[in-house]
Amino acid sequence: MSGSIKDRVAIAGMGCTRFGERWDTGTNDLLVEAAYQAFEDAGIEPKDVEAAWLGTSSSGGTGMTLAEPLRLQYIPITRVENACATASEAFRNAAYAVAAGIHDIVLAIGVEKFKDSGMSGMGGGGTDGPGHAMLSQGLPPRQFAMLATTYFSRYGLSFEEGKHMIGRVSWKSHKNGALTRNAHFQKEVSMETILNAPMIAWPLGLYDCCGVSDGAAAAIITTPKIAKRLRKGKEPPVFAKALQIAISPRDGNYNSKYDWTHVEATVRAAERAYKEAGITNPREEISMAEVHDCFSITEAVTMEDLRFSPRGKVKDDIESGRFDLDGAQPIQLDGGLKCFGHPVGASGLRMMYEMYMQLQGRADEVLNPGMPSRQIKNPKLGLTHNLGGSPDGCAIFVGIVGLEGV
Amino acid sequence: MVGITSAGAYVPIYRLARGDIARVWAGGRGVAVAGERAVANFDEDTISMAVEASIDCLKGIDREQIDGLYFASTTAPYREKQSATMVAEALDLRREIFTADFTDSLRAGTNAMRAAIDAVKAGSAKKVLVTAADCRLGALQSEYEQNFGDGAVAILISNSGVIASVEGSYSHSNDIIDLWRTDTNTFVNASEDRFSVTYGYLENVQEGVSKLLERYNLSPKDFAKAALYAFDARRHLELARNLGFDAKTQLQDSLFNTVGNTGAAYALMILAATLEEAKAGDRILFTSYGDGCDAYILQATDKIGKLKGRKGIKGHVASKLPLPDYTKYLRYRSLLGELALAGEPVATINWRERNWSVRCHGSKCRECGKIEWPIQRICAYCGAKDNYDEVRLSDKKLTLTTFSKDSLARSVDPPIIVCIASIEGGGRFYAHMTDRDPDKVEVGMPLELTFRRLYSKDDIHTYSWKMRPIR
Amino acid sequence: MAGIVSYGAYIPYYRLPRSVINKAWGRGGGRGEKAVAGFDEDSITMSIAAGLDCLKRTDPKTVDALFLATTTAPYKERQNSTIAATALDLRRDARNADFANCLRAGTTALLSALDAVNAGSLKSVLVTAADTRLGGASGENEQAFGDGSAAFLLGNKGVAVEIEGSYTLSDDLADYWRAHEDTFVRAWEDRFGRDEGYMKIPAEAAAGVMKKYNLAPKDFAKVCFYGANSRAHAALGGEMKFKPEQIQEPLLDTVGNTGAALPLMILVAALENAKAGDRILLVSWGNGSDAIVLRVTEQIEKIRDRRGIKRHLDIKRTLDNYGRYLRWREMVPLDPPTRHEGGLASMAAQWREHATALPLYGVKCKQCGTPQLFQSASSTHARICLECFAKDNFEPYRFADKRAKLVSFSHDYLGGGIDPPTTAAIIDFDGGGRGAFNMVDRDPDECQVGIGVEMTFRKLRYLLGSHTYVWKCKPVRD
Description:
The complex is a heterotrimer of chains A (406), B (471) and C (478). Chain B has 471 residues and is an alpha+beta fold. Chain B has helices spanning 18-24, 46-57, 83-90, 108-121, 143-147, 193-216, 233-243, 266-277, 312-318, 326-332, 347-352, 354-357; strands at 3-10, 14-17, 36-39, 68-73, 78-80, 98-103, 127-134, 151-158, 164-173, 179-182, 189-190, 225-228, 283-289, 292-300, 321-322, 361-365, 371-372, 388-392, 397-406, 416-423, 428-433, 446-457, 460-469. In chain B, α2 (46-57) packs across α3. Classes of the chains: A alpha/beta (406), B alpha+beta (471), C alpha+beta (478). β10 (179-182) of chain B pairs antiparallel with β5 of chain C, so a sheet runs across the interface.
């Protein structure tokens, strides 16, 4: 790999809508809401945007999905899709256009409008296929549940021990979500409630699963020079340190080498990202992270895959509170997918938004009134991890952002 | 030598011009297919049509000698209750015969034929009647509604008196879903037709024929005729061309433009038409299609002339009435809802009275020799009690004695022509007249009997005999 | 002499005690139990299950034909036997046929297969009979009918049961019937069918076959015959002049009346206890009667390891919930789904993948020897080896007959379906290869990483006029 994105592009502004079941809001409204927040934050006009990357998994088609509501005039717009990692992919492609020197100011935006389908949750993956797609009827929970089944089995956790570990993950996210004004779910939930919730896909219960939401998030990406000019007199811009994506060959369902206790693509993407950003000890060097906690078990194994916890030991870190908002390495500071919500095409940019706000010390701008501060102290580097697919095969994005010179 | 010793066919009298169907749907997908299609009358189904074809096939053949009856169809009236048994009874065959229903595939007809050949070869039967009938529904407005036709065929398999010997065969199965229908579907479902034709019809039949020819070291020029199942008229020509048969001299007409695609009966109907025109020594290539392909080499023997005198395909195709409009078609097929008809079917009565109602037996008084129908225990003429022989009347001609046109009673096709007719050789027959033009009914007209479904209630279909003008 | 070379049977895992049905309708009592096909089983899948049992240690490529008998075929136009033959991995030029519309279809198919072998036109014919007939809710038929299947391989080499002769009577007496649009079997007043049909015609056929071959009841070790209920069955045995100890137990209290499959299932049960030299009489009933004389040879000892009837009777789980039965048989309208379900399977794709999907073939890399499945949404055939990346350098490798170990699983309560939870499983096959399948016939509590599973062919769903079939796995219960 000859090049690195480190410090070659910066985020000059970001926006993120409230996530949730926004019955009264359409795709167009969500796009306008997120884009204009970002424009305002960056101090630019829509006409300053030279090109845009739109991420959506099922709420639109071509670039016109974005051009039409924003009335963008004849600029290049690329629609990208990489399952739940779609928004991160929009961000990565937009950043590369700036790093390549082709464009100066670009927009990366992700959106999903799920709640017009009349159906709960996400789709089951299209048609039956040629009469063999054994798990085609399967919704996501069953696939991720199998991570838990083998994780518990391999590391000798009893059902109760395992459930407590993953329950603690969700408990923490609910605590954080309760602080966050734009989150889908803003309520703390007790461990007792979590552990006694109905099963969704054994061993995962209701609180082990994130819901799906409507929402959009956007970023204005530009050169470091322009970013500093635009943010003059405001909080400093945030710099990209690493943007990596790894696509698995989707063979976990039929390659016996896959052990179902980790996600290999996360390991691969993370190692490349650490190299790109010059990080050797992520457990110590990464201040905070937003990871893809579509299910509690996903967050747990991701901690190991990212080398935040040693293999097989994440339970110790989870139970000791290392990943709580006041812990040594806070995770899901805004509630994560679990509580902030999961509009598929927007989630990656929502993660980035939280890192951006924390790095600039602005986390309390989206604090729920009357709640204690959710801003952490002196974060240096934030990591986002975005998973599209399921453990047997997925697209994994790992991005690292930080302040200048870190 | 095992082979075909007789053949017969049946095509319902009504024909619907395909243009008439297309016109109904004009502006939509209403593109007319050429020609016309045969439409079963409202009182016909696969059982009744199979009876007709079988009667045609058995002309001049002693019915007591039939050892088995195989019925093939994808549209049998019952899912649990053998159609073959009902057909055998209407034909007045022996009770100790082997009967079976072959279904669920357009190849059911040739599946049954093969089983009959095996039964004769194995020595477990000497004469087996194979009859195939279909009455499939194409979805309204689809090309299949126009393509499909109704009809039946019967062939007798034996090892003596063979008119066409079976010289070779090849078969393969292929679960391609081109046309299909589940147990709850009314209409045939269809995949995109280019897929069905390319990978289904053409590929399978071509594979079957080339494997067959290879096995017996023959080439297309060695055949007088090719009797090939037709997907439709155009694809039939395409298949013949691909196989290397001359469309003008070697290709047997597919009946597509006169009858339509008759499903499980179709291939055998094309074969029956071929046999009607064959000369001794003619080698015939015969193929069916449906979830694979059955391919046969047949050769006409010097006994082929025995087929004469049957109505067969040719006679039935020529004998027709136009179905005046498309709505009649919808009514006949109960697509406008079922009409509640008079009549209480009773399983016990149907069973108890089956000798006169299904077998069409009359009583012939042993004392005075007079014939009566239905069977009478006390002779109306001489008063003799329980002293009669049962005689089969279904093959007798009749003369219309009197009639009325009942427009009051409910019928799918009013008016009901209620008839009293004299049976040739004695006896009176009281029944409805079907396949008739109400304006052309007159006292003294000659009539024949035909086995029909009278009514259906509580999902019991009640069948008996009706009269019709001689076809 | 031609005859039966092998036998097999299948009884669904679930049994519904008749007392449970009675309780649901506010009645007491109820004798025995009935076998109930799983929500994903039908006559095709049960034919395959019995066929697999019958073809144990037989190369399916040596079988020349499949004759499938049933009155409850899922398709009216699309040969059910060819679907089953493909899943059983028979050759493409196997000659398949569906025998239907009559409770005699099983014995009819058996006799037709015998003809084919005797005629020399086929060497080896697999005959399967299966039924899943429905009786209307709360009626007698609902209690009486059970689900199950039997299979016989006919040939003239290694014959375990010679077929010495047969005699048939056809009689269009409608005691039970079902028109093409009917869901439930209808019946006329039972004494009519009993007195004029069942008690007369099979006895007449049995007498006919004994007369034809100069035999008497005492010449038979066992008589196997159809019975709609236990009382009538016992009475007919007497009518045919057989002693109670000669009458093979008719499975009515344990499995129920399995329609076209019943006489053949009773025969399998008889063969499981038969000795060489035993003569057996098989009599079916349904619009007439087939009576068949069989004689057991020493070869019977070589096929004792089939699961057959005896072992399948023991492999069971009680269904103590009548509502579940109603759901499985789709006898009650269910709430429409509120989550996304898949669309109709592409017919073209199903056909394209037939070589792999229906018979469950994967590949084995010729370069590195790794067996592997490929199950993407649009294709089931691998092109690039997942181990050594060699391209298009494979030989076919069948997984359907391999056992496997459970690697991971989850019980999905969210996905809906007829019988939640759906158990998703990742399994590693003995000999190599991994696959993802649904797991059925399992007690959720018995699922553990590492347990042994075997493959079973099931229905995935019915949608828009098409049944989609897939392989699933289930715990091994030998």
